[in-house]
Write a structure and sequence with these properties.
Elements: E1 6-11, H1 17-32, E2 36-41, H2 44-50, E3 60-63, E4 66-70, E5 84-88, H3 95-103, E6 109-113, H4 120-125, E7 129-131, E8 138-142, H5 159-165, H6 168-177, E9 187-191, H7 199-207, E10 212-217, H8 218-224, E11 238-241, E12 244-249, H9 254-263, E13 266-270, H10 273-279, E14 285-288, H11 296-308, H12 314-327, H13 337-359, H14 364-375
Parallel strand pairs: 1-2, 1-5, 2-4, 5-6, 6-8, 9-10, 9-13, 10-12, 13-14
Antiparallel strand pairs: 3-4, 7-8, 11-12
Length: about 375
């Protein structure tokens, strides 16, 4: 095994905050394990939304224990590769950078960190090599996942202990800082979704009760609700309609977003980063995948549900599958919030068991270091 000390992570932002969020979390995780990390990202504005301390006018800066570099052709000019080079989500390095990598002695360990999927083929492809057709470089595919044969999920040291220590008093203080006062017997929901989500159907069902308080991040509210509601959708505004209350909250930094998920009874999440965070929250969640024109996201969703629904009663599994499929745009399924809400007391236990099962898989950054050291 060959130890290494430095890591380059490249992020080409496609899915807005998800790509940037995962790359940032990976950079922080590797840095916390003693690695010298550089995060190369082509959209500093997106990362600044997650970490407002970032100066998006600087080409290079240190943040959260690692270096952040604005990824552009100027930064690539005299690239000196790290010991390990990670392409997040299949982004492509330029020929110039690949040439620099091939001229390095030794050549860096080159890893393609793939999107998260529960599809069976990803396990068979995990850690497989792919030789460059022109250069003496080999890229290795690294698949995050939910089973022991996969690359696992990102999970910081001490995260689960912090989650267990998050008590009712801490929850109340956190929500108060957001301007949220939840009354007794009110269901609290966080809503983070794409604009394609069937929001009208969900809100229509929630209006008829029981009392529900829905928290929507400001940017998401403007994108998702802006064309549907004439109300003020800036942070701090509130809309009441029947038994439903909608509060617009600020876009939160990653650690505060974790606390939001810990505070809510149900979490609607989207993409990859918030899905993983919902796993560690121990509360029921509903996942919306990044929509794809050929409905490939429905195939990915079904593969996940095949794993996730194991251990549920058959009636609960049918309700969960139908609701998740409808939320993801499957025209055959029905968005039956009333039936889904009735399963929530049982789903709480299921989600805690699922979280424990998934957290038994070795954590992603730890596995990645181990793998890179083995092949380097």
């Amino acid at each position: 095994m060959h130890p290494f000390k430095s890591v380059d992570i490249f992020c080409d932002v496609i899915d807005n905050f998800g790509d940037a969020g995962v790359s940032w979390r990976l950079a922080r995780a590797l840095s916390s394990q003693g690695m010298s990390v550089r995060l190369w990202i082509n959209d500093l504005w997106c990362l600044k939304h997650l970490r407002p301390a970032l100066d998006d006018c600087l080409a290079e800066q240190v943040l959260d224990g690692f270096e952040v570099i604005a990824w552009n052709e100027h930064a690539e000019f005299d690239y000196q590769p790290a010991d390990v080079v990670i392409e997040a989500f299949g982004c492509r390095l330029t020929d110039s950078m690949l040439n620099h990598m091939s001229n390095a002695n030794p050549a860096p360990v080159w890893i393609n960190l793939e999107y998260l999927s529960a599809e069976s083929w990803t396990v068979g492809s995990h850690c497989l090599p792919s030789h460059h057709p022109r250069l003496p470089l080999t890229q290795y595919f690294f698949f995050p996942g939910f089973v022991a044969e996969s690359g696992g999920l990102l999970r910081e040291d001490g995260l689960m202990q912090a989650r267990l220590a998050f008590n009712l008093e801490m929850r109340a203080a956190f929500l108060k800082n957001l301007g949220i006062d939840v009354t007794l017997n009110t269901r609290l929901i966080s809503l983070f979704c794409y604009e394609q989500a069937p929001i009208e159907d969900l809100f229509k069902a929630m209006r008829s009760g029981p009392p529900t308080h829905c928290l929507v991040p400001e940017g998401v509210a403007k994108n998702v609700l802006g064309q549907r509601m004439a109300n003020d959708l800036s942070a701090g505004s509130q809309i009441s309609d029947g038994q439903l209350t909608i509060s617009i909250i600020p876009f939160l930094e990653p650690d505060d977003y974790d606390r939001l998920l810990w505070s809510c009874d149900v979490n609607f999440v989207r993409g990859e980063d918030s899905l993983v965070r919902a796993h560690w929250a121990h509360h029921p969640f509903v996942w919306q995948l990044y929509p794809q024109h050929d409905d490939a996201h429905i195939i990915k969703l079904t593969a996940f549900l095949d794993h996730f629904c194991l251990g549920m009663s058959e009636p609960d599994a049918l309700v969960v599958r139908a609701f998740w499929l409808a939320w993801n745009g499957n025209s055959v399924a029905t968005l039956d919030w009333a039936s889904f809400a009735k399963t929530l007391p049982r789903l709480g236990t299921h989600h805690r068991l699922w979280s424990a099962k998934v957290s038994s898989v070795d954590e992603l950054s730890t596995q990645l270091i181990r793998f890179a050291s083995k092949i380097g």
